[in-house]
Amino acid sequence: LWRLGYCARLLKTNRCQTAASNTSFPAVWMLLAQYSGRIPGPFVVVQKKSFFTMPETVEDKSSLELYSPHPGVRGMTVLDREAFKRTIVVPVLKVKKEIVNTLLKSLKQTVLQRPGLKRVVEDPEDEDSKLVILDPHKIPEFSLGESEQEVLKKLKVSPEVSKYNLELTYENFKSEEILRAVLPEGQDVTSGFSRVGHIAHFNLRDHQLPYRHLIGQVIIDKNPGITCVVNKTSIIDSTYRNFQMEVLAGESNLVTKVKENSIMYELDFSKVYWNPRLSTEHSRIVELLKPGDILCDVFAGIGPFAIPAAKKKCRVFANDLNPESYRWLLHNCKLNKVDSKVKVFNMDGRDFLLGPVREELSKELPLLKGEQKTSFHIVMNLPALAIEFLDVFRHLLVGEPCSAADLPMVHCYGFSKHDDPEKDIQERTEGVLGTSLAGRCSTYLVRNVAPNKEMLCISFQIPEDVLYKRPCPEEGKEQASCVALGFEAMPS
């Protein structure tokens, strides 16, 4: 205790002295640490000698950012893989070859586990031995704990930990580590990307644009199978739901294949809409259908609702205004051998509802009686605008309503930035339909599109007072014949 107190007083005195006497400060600190029992005397000497076998700049930073690329890559806009090389100091154990595997199992929590880096390397001084690399984060002071030393004692392995110069190259770093080292400090590395077949699709932010070509090449390097990286350069066109994009790296081939829920689709990503994040939603809606049901897909795209529904033996009417989507929809129906079960249209969504959908409703709804199990579903997946199309259902049919159980079910998608998105989507739907849906609808949160912006699906049976217009009694037989044909009489 007296020695410890003496060292403490000496340490305090050194802090107050001039720059010349401060040169002895580290020695006093080591002396204090030695007397306190935190650092054994022999270790202090070994540590001091081995410190200078590696550059101080590497050793100082290795404990904080051990697996960061060389700091000189900050601000790089053209990828230079050689510039990412860096040497770090890691702890190793010298082990006889015949017990290496046993040691790896016994010290699996302590041995280096980083993917892409070898845990065992050759011993340059002894061909009968190997060097087992330990995790520097688990052995920060190059000294093993008691439990590890017990294991080594049983295996008759020396507990002495040595230092090994481990060279890290571009291949050893993950894409996030590379981009974090290159982009300005404190800024987002990436905004994430979607994979569509061999294409990686980014929505880069403004501060990332100067590095976009480097980002593209890194993604290709680090993701097997990706051969093209694109960045969206404009908002989605509300008419055809496609957008302008720039190829950042790789080939310019944007015709690709994707597999979703065990179904293969082909598409030109630059000309049609496809979002892999909607896979679960496509599956959710199709699971609601039963064989024999009728599905009308108003904004069908290339068929992610229509084709699985047809494979489930539903009757499908699929429409899309985009001529390219129409062409790929036809192609994918043939590709999946359901072209005989899907009627495909290239129309405006409103015209599709007023024409083929109304005709089918007029024909089928009167037949859905008694034990009939067929249900009628209408999917409207155009989140930016679909709710505005719901006014089409107001008095779409003329005549006496069918039973409430047989009324068509609508699944309509929309975006909301409201604090209560479910309430918002319901109120907007009610406003267009002109009636309350309280207790007659359900809302489902599909996904978060952006901060404070949600995509939702509202499902409801079209109320009979909305769907049907009852004919006036005095209109007589002429009106009745119009009803039978499914046409609405002209107003007098």
Automatic annotation (TrEMBL):
Cellular component terms per the entry's GO annotation: mitochondrial matrix
Q: Which InterPro entries match?
A: MeTrfase_TRM5/TYW2 (IPR030382), SAM-dependent_MTases_sf (IPR029063), TRM5-TYW2-like_MTfase (IPR056743), TRM5/TYW2-like_N (IPR056744), tRNA_Gua_MeTrfase_euk (IPR025792)
Q: Which reaction does it catalyse?
A: guanosine(37) in tRNA + S-adenosyl-L-methionine = N(1)-methylguanosine(37) in tRNA + S-adenosyl-L-homocysteine + H(+)
Q: Which GO biological process categories is it annotated with?
A: mitochondrial tRNA methylation; tRNA N1-guanine methylation
Residue intervals of the SAM-dependent methyltransferase TRM5/TYW2-type domain: 193-464
CDD domains hit by this protein: AdoMet_MTases
**Gene3D superfamilies in the record:** Met-10+ protein-like domains (3.30.300.110), Vaccinia Virus protein VP39 (3.40.50.150)
Question: Is the Methyltransferase keyword given for this protein?
Answer: yes
Q: Which GO terms fall under molecular function for this chain's record? A: tRNA (guanine(37)-N1)-methyltransferase activity
UniProt keyword annotations, A-Z: Cytoplasm, Methyltransferase, Mitochondrion, Nucleus, S-adenosyl-L-methionine, Transferase, tRNA processing
Purpose: Involved in mitochondrial tRNA methylation. Specifically methylates the N1 position of guanosine-37 in various tRNAs. Methylation is not dependent on the nature of the nucleoside 5' of the target nucleoside. This is the first step in the biosynthesis of wybutosine (yW), a modified base adjacent to the anticodon of tRNAs and required for accurate decoding.
Q: Which family does it belong to?
A: Belongs to the class I-like SAM-binding methyltransferase superfamily. TRM5/TYW2 family.
Could you identify this protein by its name? TRM5 methyltransferase
| Organism encoding this protein | Centropus bengalensis (lesser coucal)
Q: Which gene does this sequence derive from?
A: Trmt5
